[in-house]
Write a structure and sequence with these properties.
The protein has eleven helices and twelve strands. By secondary structure, the chain is of the alpha/beta class. The chain has two domains: about 130 residues, Rossmann fold (3-Layer(aba) Sandwich), CATH 3.40.50; about 160 residues, Rossmann fold, CATH 3.40.50. Helix 1 runs parallel beside helix 11. The longest helix has 19 residues. This is Glyoxylate reductase/hydroxypyruvate reductase.
């Protein structure tokens, strides 16, 4: 019997060792790696995928028709180390009958924890407080100095009560939240677990003290959070986004924050990423911006890397993926 041909895999970034070792030990493939923590340059990506049977990529890699053309007809599987897949040209991929693996579920807890941390940091003005300590602004006790907003007795609105939205709601309830509202395409049976009330988006915005965006990016949600959106919110409301940057019109958010239309905002996602250091939002005290670290725990990233590698290997051998995106 002749030996099975060894398939070639291109990996666009230095991923956690748990995943990389799985690929490097696999007899079915050889691995070419862009060995850097920084994104692969476009020219190197096009060169790296040439003739590849499998591609392991990240959210920052734009996998479009040009990349697919560069890869050629051998490409049979793309495995992305992310839950989101808006960086993939899905229509082109489907047309070429390429399978796609992704990593839902595994980063739910980490992202939910980060969302709650960001909400608390923004509402209780923690970055401002830290800066006052460091700059010498902390003097005597003052009745209203650095006062923020608490969760006890509040109404929280979650836009998109999916895996992460529900995990956020579970973590917020013990803080004494009085009402948990949510909006989306349809009511969710699992909302009963957190006493969630399904309401129209306008009602959620008008009634919520905290608005948490946890929906997927789609044509319907692109630019959802715009001037009209913020105008419907309470002037004392806190806005949190850990979904995708493109869900928010950042110019309208800036206007809402500077005009006092809403009290504060916390963002873990922006457009673009990274956000330029001279961006107007970064000059505001009532806007907390994090560098997209929702899933950034050592254990979560290791699990993501292993799942991404296993998806890729299953795709290469024609087996069922642990987590395949249904195209």
């Amino acid at each position: 019997m002749s030996a099975q041909p060894v398939l070639r895999v291109f990996v666009t970034r230095r991923i956690p060792q748990e995943g990389l070792e799985l690929l490097q030990r696999a007899a079915v493939c050889t691995v070419s790696l862009w060995d850097s923590d920084e994104p692969v340059p476009r020219a190197e990506l096009l060169k790296g995928v040439e003739g590849a049977h499998g591609l392991l990529c990240l959210l920052s890699d734009r996998i479009d028709a040009e990349v697919l053309d560069a890869a050629g007809p051998n490409l049979k599987v793309i495995s992305t180390m992310s839950v989101g897949f808006d960086h993939l040209a899905i229509d082109e991929i489907k047309k070429r009958e390429i399978r796609v693996g992704y990593t839902p579920d595994v980063l739910t807890d980490a992202t939910a924890e980060l969302t709650v941390a960001l909400l608390l940091a923004t509402a209780r003005r923690l970055p401002e407080g830290i800066q006052e300590v460091k700059s010498g602004g902390w003097s005597s006790w003052k009745p209203l100095w650095l006062c923020g907003y608490g969760l006890s007795g509040s109404t929280v609105g979650v836009i998109g009560l999916g895996r992460i939205g529900l995990a956020v709601a579970r973590r917020l309830k013990p803080f004494g939240v009085k009402r948990l509202l949510y909006s989306g395409r349809q009511p969710k049976p699992q909302a009963q677990e957190v006493d969630g009330e399904y309401v129209p988006l306008d009602s959620l915005l008008c009634e919520s003290d905290f608005v948490v965006v946890s929906c997927a990016l789609s044509p319907e949600t692109q630019g959802l959070c715009d001037k009209a959106f913020f105008t419907k919110m309470k002037t004392t409301a806190v806005f949190i986004n850990t979904s995708r940057g493109a869900v928010v019109n950042q110019e309208d958010l800036y206007e809402a924050l500077t005009a006092g239309q809403i009290a504060a905002a916390g963002l873990d996602v922006t457009t673009p990423e990274p956000l330029p250091t001279d961006h107007p939002l970064l000059a505001l005290k009532n806007c907390v911006v994090l560098p997209h670290i929702g899933s950034a725990t050592y254990s979560t990233r290791g699990i993501m890397a292993k799942l991404t590698a296993n998806n890729l290997l299953a795709g290469l051998t024609g087996e069922a993926m642990p987590s395949e995106l249904k195209l």
